[in-house]
Structure prediction request, 261 residues.
Amino acid sequence: MKKILIIEDDLIDQMAFVRMLEKQKLEYQYSIAKSIQEAKTELTQNSFDLVISDHNLADGTTFDLLDDLKNTPFILITGNEDQFTINTLESKLGAIACFTKDLDLNYLQKLPLVIQDFFNQKINEPDQLKNEIKIGTISNISHENVSINLKNITKIFDKKTKEIKESINLFIFHKPREMEALYSYLNNKDCENVKKITHQMKSGFRLFGMKSQIELADFIEKNAGSSKTACTCEIVFDSFKQLSTDTKIAIEILKKELPLL
Prediction:
């Protein structure tokens, strides 16, 4: 049986990957590494037929896995990396495909087809693949400047209430802790960790269709990566305050939505 290693540090994205494999009835064994270090351990101790990895993780990036992935086929998943970074990764890692985490989660619909084509030795370009998965019921919830769209979660989990609730509870549990960490990093002018935590936060916002909050987190991340002055400027703190307020509103919305599911 083919073995796949999934490298992803976000719990909701892990669930989405696993659900994708199960939903498409892809009969492959899979393991999950939640960090670059765990991935190195897995790749050292085990042999895999394919690796699927997010580019940015809390303890590093896929650049740190160049030596470990030399002899292993690889699919790259990126957030919003610039095209130069993506091209560099594809070239250095020899990635058979590269997907960007789009707001509508189209990459999760195309990914299983690429996996199957790869194992059948019929590799197609990802952008030529057809979306054959029907989108489920769309549920839009708005309050002030916070808009939540549950179609992604509904689509991933086939309207299964238990799993949808679990993903919502993960968001409710983790987002306040991420905001506390971001506040601490900003106050300590720890720009590197500001960049990492905001990149990580975008996964949860993306799965709940929170476009404005993705843009806020992206703005903070990019400023943190440009310079310490930009990382700690007033407009970044204003963006953090708005993101913090929006996150609290989103959590309250989702808490009210849970009993209705």
In short: Residues 161-187 form the longest helix (27 residues). The chain is about 55% helix and 15% strand. The beta strands are 3-7, 29-33, 50-54, 56-57, 60-61, 74-78, 97-100, 140-143, 146-149.
